[in-house]
């Protein structure tokens, strides 16, 4: 359930609307391409994680396979990704709660949500898993109900509403009304929604039989991606005109619009509840992941030693949790400053995180390529093997690099590529300096 929760985020319920609005019904191809990449990346990560479960996950594997600078860089970038995401998820939660209780400001709800949900991570992974189980269950039930209702509508069996059948799949300009270029751009946006599936390899290192749990979760990625993402997006583009103005409205959501057109009463409240659950789940998992990555960096000497201290008897990295949560609270407090135009600040921060998802995928693929050959040379048994090695790994690397290059030539992504690229270079240089100092002290 934790791996399911990692895949299903607010981007599916809300962000998919803008993807569909830009690419038309062909948006389903964008999600299909992103889904295939996630399946391949998770298989690669699963191979490494079953051979050597570690709280640092791909950051640790990058250090072993590529070099310490790589582990340092991707570890800190990934930590930053989840810390920033916490602030964004808290803002969305605060906005929904403010809509229900207007007497309390969004800012107050943002701070309350951040403080309340990060407390979950002071418990061990078992209790964190309990919270994620119930949050994930709500999301899964909501999506399954959505799929059942929409399938009935596509088959002309739904009794109410304004839409039915599959006419919208080819109407309003055809299946690909805005050309292949729009699908490529939409694919880049859709792929960011999948980041989170890898959390299970981090959490599994604190559980019983980590290798077995990783195998189980990795093997289930295929049907989860097909059912939850590709299945629901296909039904939406069948039922809702891609050029519906509300599909492109920020924060409105493709799920909500579909339910409204199907005549479902209380669609807005239902979807706000589901989205609130989703962002709460993501906030918890974001803080869990950030704290464990900081803990792993400290264990390897790439972060202050205080962050590797744990609570006796539980193994919970208390100071890593406090460190990550402090940054999250600081980002949440940005909302109290009108001078900073809080939503603009958070939007800017969130836009820089998309590239990190691509860099994480690229590092996982390059690390698996080297570690597989190292494991085979050592004669170790590999419990979960990557399919068609090394060709599918090479294909994944080429595909990711191709996406990054394409982003550099798309106007709306150029600033993102430059800013994130500069940040990655700066962090890498810091990693090299830290490594060199450590070597001198050791000598």
Automatic annotation (TrEMBL):
Its main location: membrane. GO terms for cellular component: membrane. It comes from Pseudomonas japonica. InterPro entries: AA-permease/SLC12A_dom (IPR004841), Amino_acid_permease_CS (IPR004840). Coiled coil: none annotated. The chain crosses the membrane at residues 27-45, 66-88, 100-123, 135-159, 179-200, 221-242, 269-290, 316-336, 348-366, 387-409, 415-434. One of its GO terms (biological process) is amino acid transport. Residues 1-433 form the Amino acid permease/ SLC12A domain. Keywords: Membrane, Transmembrane, Transmembrane helix, Transport. This is Gamma-aminobutyrate:proton symporter, AAT family. It is a multi-pass membrane protein. It is found in: Membrane. It comes from the Bacteria. Signal peptide: none annotated.
């Amino acid at each position: 359930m934790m791996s399911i929760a990692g895949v299903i985020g607010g981007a599916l319920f809300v962000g998919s609307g803008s993807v569909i609005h830009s690419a038309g019904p062909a948006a389903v191809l964008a999600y299909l391409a992103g889904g295939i990449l996630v399946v391949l990346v998770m298989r690669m990560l699963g191979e490494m994680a079953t051979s050597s479960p570690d709280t640092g996950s791909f950051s640790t594997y990058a250090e072993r396979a590529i070099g310490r600078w790589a582990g340092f860089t991707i570890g800190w970038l990934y930590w930053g990704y989840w810390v920033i995401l916490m602030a964004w998820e808290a803002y969305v939660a605060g906005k929904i709660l403010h809509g229900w209780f207007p007497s309390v400001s969004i800012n107050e709800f943002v701070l309350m949500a951040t403080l309340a949900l990060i407390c979950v991570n002071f418990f061990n992974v078992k209790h964190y898993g309990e919270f994620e189980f119930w949050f994930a269950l709500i999301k899964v039930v909501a999506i399954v109900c959505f799929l059942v209702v929409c399938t009935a509508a596509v088959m002309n069996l739904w009794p109410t509403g304004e839409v039915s059948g599959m006419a919208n799949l080819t109407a309003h300009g055809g299946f690909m009304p805005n050309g292949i270029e729009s699908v490529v751009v939409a694919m880049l946006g859709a792929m960011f929604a999948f980041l989170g599936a890898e959390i299970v390899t981090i959490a599994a290192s604190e559980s019983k039989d980590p290798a077995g749990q990783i195998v189980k979760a990795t093997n289930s990625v295929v049907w989860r991606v097909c059912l939850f993402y590709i299945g629901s997006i296909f039904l939406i583009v069948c039922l809702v005109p891609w050029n519906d103005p509300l599909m492109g409205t920020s924060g409105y959501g493709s799920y909500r619009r579909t339910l409204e057109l199907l005549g479902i009463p209380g669609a807005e409240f239902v979807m706000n509840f589901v989205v609130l659950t989703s962002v709460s789940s993501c906030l918890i998992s974001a803080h869990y992941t950030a704290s464990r990555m900081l803990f792993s960096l400290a264990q390897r000497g790439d972060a202050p030693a205080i962050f590797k201290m744990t609570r006796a008897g539980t193994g919970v990295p208390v100071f890593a949790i406090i460190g990550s949560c402090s940054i999250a609270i600081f980002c949440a407090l940005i909302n109290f400053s009108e001078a900073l135009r809080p939503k603009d600040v958070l939007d800017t921060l969130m836009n820089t995180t998309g590239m990190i998802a691509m860099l994480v995928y690229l590092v996982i693929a390059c690390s698996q390529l080297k570690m597989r050959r190292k494991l085979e040379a050592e004669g170790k048994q590999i419990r979960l093997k990557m399919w068609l090695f090394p060709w599918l790994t090479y294909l994944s690397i080429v595909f990711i690099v191709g996406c990054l290059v394409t982003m550099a030539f798309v106007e709306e992504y150029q600033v993102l590529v430059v800013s994130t690229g500069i940040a990655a270079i700066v962090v890498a240089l810091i990693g090299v300096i830290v490594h060199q100092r450590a070597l001198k002290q050791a000598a």
